[in-house]
Amino acid sequence: MKSDTYDLSGRVALVTGGAGLLGIQHSSALIESGATVYVADINDEAVQKACTELGDKAKPLHLDVTDADDVVCALELILDENEGIHILVNNAAIDPKADANSVIESSRLENFPLEQWCYQIEVGLTGAFLCSKVFGVWMADNGGGTILNIASDLSVFAPDQRLYHIAGLPEARQPVKPVTYPVIKTALIGLTRYLATYWANKNIRVNALSPGGVFTNQSDEFVSRLTSLIPLGRMARPNEYRAAVQFLCSDASGYMTGQNIVIDGGRSVL
Ligand SMILES: NC(=O)c1ccc[n+]([C@@H]2O[C@H](COP(=O)([O-])OP(=O)(O)OC[C@H]3O[C@@H](n4cnc5c(N)ncnc54)[C@H](O)[C@@H]3O)[C@@H](O)[C@H]2O)c1
Predict the structure, then answer these.
(1) Structural domains of the chain, with CATH
(2) pTM over 0.85
(3) Ligand 1 pocket check for 24: Cβ under 6 Å
(4) pLDDT tens figures, 211-245
């Protein structure tokens, strides 16, 4: 049985990108620990569906993390409905799939469009900055809270582009993991450390979680290449980050701030 330091009863959380694959898991994990969770996303249909599945403690919220006014409105709405906000999970990101035909050639550095660079950084990094600024300032003025930045194993090592190789294509046409993804995820660790020390005296703890790849029926070839690099020999299940989210967002991690927990089946220690 978990100790009551994991108990989040009475706390209010916001999960950005909350309607996506892992956002739903983070939201559900926080609800399981007792929190009320605002499932915040630009995809309204997915938010409604997620909240129906998650039950009464899940609150749907339309939020574009790149829009500063939207973020301020989200705080105002949460404060209208609750006494405060205690937990922020910066989870929204764009993760272009290397096997999608439309991004194959444009994923390469030499072709990578400036607009995609700006857009992906805006969602994955500027969005985390804006939400941390607005919600974190409120927390700093109102007794504290916790912020969790969802990074990636690519915050601690470079992409292995051989994973995405397609036999028979010339090098100039080979898909790659775009430059933006590891840049954003590495920068999120810098943001984590900055905010952790900036608000240490305000009772705000800020940590990062770096998941490895989740199995979502990727091709056998991709899975076999990737799992050969993972000591535990498999990709993650979507529910395998829940306990870490509960730990990092609760008093159970009360003496921890500015850290990056890497959960990757051991890949990064090889
Ligand atoms: N799935 C994995 O294998 C994996 C591995 C490592 C890290 N991660 C990280 O975990 C997080 C969640 O990944 P996921 O697999 O659930 O992705 P996902 O694509 O399923 O979900 C991302 C969500 O973000 C939302 N979103 C996009 N732009 C937004 C915006 N401007 N404002 C608000 N919401 C917006 C999308 O609508 C979507 O619901 C991401 O930060 C991702 O980089 C995922």
Answers:
(1) 4-263 (3.40.50.720)
(2) yes
(3) no
(4) 999 999 999 999 999 999 999 999 999 999 999 99
